[in-house]
């Protein structure tokens, strides 16, 4: 194995030990730190690593793993529901940006082929940086997250067509290509067989994921050998990436499809746990390799040109993204964040420039300048997002930020996250027993209303781990999660504060299944006990005495929860779950009738 590669991994791990804790204090601090570490060890400063592109190609596997994890969260029906945004929003962004950049390049004297090659490469955004940011901020389910992901997914697909266009664009340029070992020879089927193989691979991945992998995972789970599950998880990611690479497609696309095929599997949470550490480490290595690719000597020799191109590119993409976002009805706040998130150039630009230079579509000197522009724009993105948080976001939160005090550590044993209709009932019950409780909510108007009743509720986003630290989560023995969309939050709290017992609100049975899979201390559906109280009232109105109605309601709850514990592992198999549900209803009816009969005859 190459010594420079081992050295870069060693330095990366050293940086990770220092920078990951820092990232807990500053959302993108670790990304900025990795980029700085890459600059320091790269050719421009210490020169410890002389070939950053080789490291970059390996580190891009972190992006592949990230797309696999994203696919696990996105069922095919959700992807179909995104089709308008995927084609409309993603297609508009790429098309308009490519045409605008190509037009500017032709005005600057570039040939038509070179101008469009440059436009294609610079129209793409960084999947690694953008998705890492969206995941960290838990925005994947929000409008800016869904729209950003739609654009990024479209870019990952269209990059295949862009690479295929390079030989055609090369015929429109007056210069020759440069020999290169990277991508110089096809390694898969060609011609009509390429189409047949592509269809076969996609169908095979779908059928294999649906009918082969789930039984395989079931067998592995029964063996209780954790290492085997981890090995199979990695094998799945690597295998799907290799299949796409064999077809000449994006490896990240293959991993995404593999994840999406398994999105309905009951083992997807275990897959996430096994892949997540590898993804995090490889993404860190990816950001270091981006920092290493920055040629500071070239930037110093042409600072006005490079900085001007970076600012111009990011400003142009920001304006286009703002316009596209407005076309598709994004509100101003998510539109601004969406535009700031995607205004950089992306890692696939390096790949396109390599192919373009090889085919003769772009001159080597042009590729050298624009590679520096790509790397510098990616390095600036975390800083731009930090500026967005410090300067733009507060303008939208002025009213809310002044409606409640920020959390402080009161050293209370219980923290309640979300003090709405459910959190208030829990809080009042604890207050009646003299149990001190820290209350957190993010609705400023609601907090002002509660002040009238002498409730001290802290203002803040309960999903922010730093805010929970300030609120004293480290000292709390119980954390009540009373906000609705809480599965990701539960995972983070369990990782950060494993000592705390989690009492969690569930929206319904599927959500309860997910929370049980996370092994929370207790979870309950938000409507079940209220519905049982109403059902108990109906029984009494029908002539059942109060004591029997109370017994029936209590036994119904106990038997229903036993059924949930017995069947939650089937949550990914709707057929088996429906069959089991039918049996459970019959057993419930039989059990309640028998117990009521025994009670009336004095045997119970």
TrEMBL record:
<feature type="domain" description="RCK N-terminal">
    <location>
        <begin position="411"/>
        <end position="527"/>
    </location>
</feature>
<keyword id="KW-0630">Potassium</keyword>
<keyword id="KW-0813">Transport</keyword>
<feature type="transmembrane region" description="Helical">
    <location>
        <begin position="151"/>
        <end position="172"/>
    </location>
</feature>
<feature type="transmembrane region" description="Helical">
    <location>
        <begin position="305"/>
        <end position="324"/>
    </location>
</feature>
<keyword id="KW-0633">Potassium transport</keyword>
<comment type="similarity">
    <text>Belongs to the monovalent cation:proton antiporter 2 (CPA2) transporter (TC 2.A.37) family.</text>
</comment>
<keyword id="KW-0050">Antiport</keyword>
<feature type="transmembrane region" description="Helical">
    <location>
        <begin position="368"/>
        <end position="388"/>
    </location>
</feature>
<feature type="transmembrane region" description="Helical">
    <location>
        <begin position="55"/>
        <end position="74"/>
    </location>
</feature>
<feature type="transmembrane region" description="Helical">
    <location>
        <begin position="31"/>
        <end position="49"/>
    </location>
</feature>
<dbReference type="InterPro" id="IPR003148">
    <property type="entry name" value="RCK_N"/>
</dbReference>
<feature type="transmembrane region" description="Helical">
    <location>
        <begin position="6"/>
        <end position="22"/>
    </location>
</feature>
<dbReference type="InterPro" id="IPR006036">
    <property type="entry name" value="K_uptake_TrkA"/>
</dbReference>
<feature type="transmembrane region" description="Helical">
    <location>
        <begin position="336"/>
        <end position="356"/>
    </location>
</feature>
<dbReference type="Pfam" id="PF02254">
    <property type="entry name" value="TrkA_N"/>
</dbReference>
<keyword id="KW-0406">Ion transport</keyword>
<protein>
    <submittedName>
        <fullName>Potassium transporter</fullName>
    </submittedName>
</protein>
<feature type="transmembrane region" description="Helical">
    <location>
        <begin position="115"/>
        <end position="131"/>
    </location>
</feature>
<dbReference type="InterPro" id="IPR038770">
    <property type="entry name" value="Na+/solute_symporter_sf"/>
</dbReference>
<feature type="transmembrane region" description="Helical">
    <location>
        <begin position="192"/>
        <end position="213"/>
    </location>
</feature>
<dbReference type="InterPro" id="IPR004771">
    <property type="entry name" value="K/H_exchanger"/>
</dbReference>
<keyword id="KW-1003">Cell membrane</keyword>
<feature type="transmembrane region" description="Helical">
    <location>
        <begin position="86"/>
        <end position="109"/>
    </location>
</feature>
<dbReference type="Pfam" id="PF00999">
    <property type="entry name" value="Na_H_Exchanger"/>
</dbReference>
<keyword id="KW-0472">Membrane</keyword>
<keyword id="KW-1133">Transmembrane helix</keyword>
<keyword id="KW-0812">Transmembrane</keyword>
<dbReference type="InterPro" id="IPR006153">
    <property type="entry name" value="Cation/H_exchanger_TM"/>
</dbReference>
<dbReference type="InterPro" id="IPR036291">
    <property type="entry name" value="NAD(P)-bd_dom_sf"/>
</dbReference>
């Amino acid at each position: 194995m190459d010594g420079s590669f081992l050295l870069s991994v060693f330095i990366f791990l050293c940086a990770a030990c220092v920078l990951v804790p820092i990232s807990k204090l500053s959302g993108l601090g670790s990304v900025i730190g990795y980029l700085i570490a890459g600059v320091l060890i790269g050719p421009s400063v210490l020169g410890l690593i002389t070939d950053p592109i080789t490291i970059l190609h390996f580190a891009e596997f972190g992006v592949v793993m990230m797309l696999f994890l994203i696919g696990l969260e996105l069922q095919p029906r959700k992807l179909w529901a995104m089709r308008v945004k995927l084609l409309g929003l993603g297609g508009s962004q790429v098309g308009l940006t490519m045409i605008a950049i190509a037009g500017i390049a032709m005005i600057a004297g570039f040939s038509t082929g070179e101008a469009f090659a440059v436009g294609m490469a610079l129209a793409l955004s960084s999947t690694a940086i953008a998705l890492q940011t969206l995941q960290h901020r838990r925005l994947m389910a929000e409008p800016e997250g869904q729209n950003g992901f739609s654009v990024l997914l479209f870019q990952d697909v269209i990059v295949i067509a862009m690479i295929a266009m390079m030989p055609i664009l090369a015929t429109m340029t007056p210069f020759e290509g440069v020999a290169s070992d990277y991508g110089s020879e096809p390694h898969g089927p060609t011609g009509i067989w390429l189409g047949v193989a592509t269809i076969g691979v996609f169908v095979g991945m779908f059928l294999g994921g649906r009918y082969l992998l789930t039984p395989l995972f079931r067998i592995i789970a029964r063996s209780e050998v954790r290492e085997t599950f981890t090995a199979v998880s990695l094998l799945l990611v690597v295998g799907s990436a290799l299949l796409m690479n064999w077809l000449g497609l994006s490896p990240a696309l293959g991993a995404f499809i593999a994840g999406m095929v398994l999105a309905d599997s009951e083992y997807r949470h275990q897959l996430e746990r096994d892949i997540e550490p590898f993804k995090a480490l490889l993404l860190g290595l990816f950001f270091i390799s981006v920092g290493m690719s920055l040629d500071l000597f070239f930037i110093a020799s042409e600072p006005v040109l490079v900085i001007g191109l970076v600012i111009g590119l990011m400003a142009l993409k920001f304006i286009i993204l703002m316009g596209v976002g407005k076309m598709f009805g994004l509100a101003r706040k998510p539109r601004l964040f969406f535009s700031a998130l995607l205004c950089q150039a992306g890692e696939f630009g390096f790949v396109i420039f390599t192919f373009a230079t090889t085919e003769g579509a772009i001159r080597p000197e042009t590729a050298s300048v624009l590679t520096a522009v790509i790397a510098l724009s990616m390095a600036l993105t975390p800083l731009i997002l930090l500026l967005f948080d410090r300067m733009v976001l507060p303008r939208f939160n002025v009213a809310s930020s002044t409606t409640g005090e920020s959390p402080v550590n009161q050293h209370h044993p219980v923290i309640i996250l979300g003090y709405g209709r459910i959190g208030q009932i829990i809080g009042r019950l604890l207050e009646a027993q003299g149990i001190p409780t820290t209350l957190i909510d993010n609705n400023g108007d609601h907090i002002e209303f509660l002040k009238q009743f002498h409730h001290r509720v802290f203002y803040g986003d309960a999903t922010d781990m730093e805010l929970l630290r300030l609120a004293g989560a480290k000292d709390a023995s119980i954390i009540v999660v009373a906000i609705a969309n809480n599965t990701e939050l539960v995972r983070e709290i369990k990782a950060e504060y494993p000592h705390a017992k989690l009492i969690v609100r569930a929206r319904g049975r599927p959500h309860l299944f997910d929370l049980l899979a996370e092994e929370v201390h207790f979870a309950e559906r938000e409507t079940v006990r209220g519905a049982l109280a109403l059902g108990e009232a109906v029984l009494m109105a029908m002539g059942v005495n109060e004591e029997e109605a109370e017994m029936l309601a209590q036994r119904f709850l106990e038997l229903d929860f036993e059924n949930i514990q017995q069947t939650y592992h089937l949550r990914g198999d709707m057929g088996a779950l429906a069959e089991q549900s039918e049996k459970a209803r019959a057993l419930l009816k039989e059990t309640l009738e028998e117990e009521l009969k025994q009670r009336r005859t004095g045997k119970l």
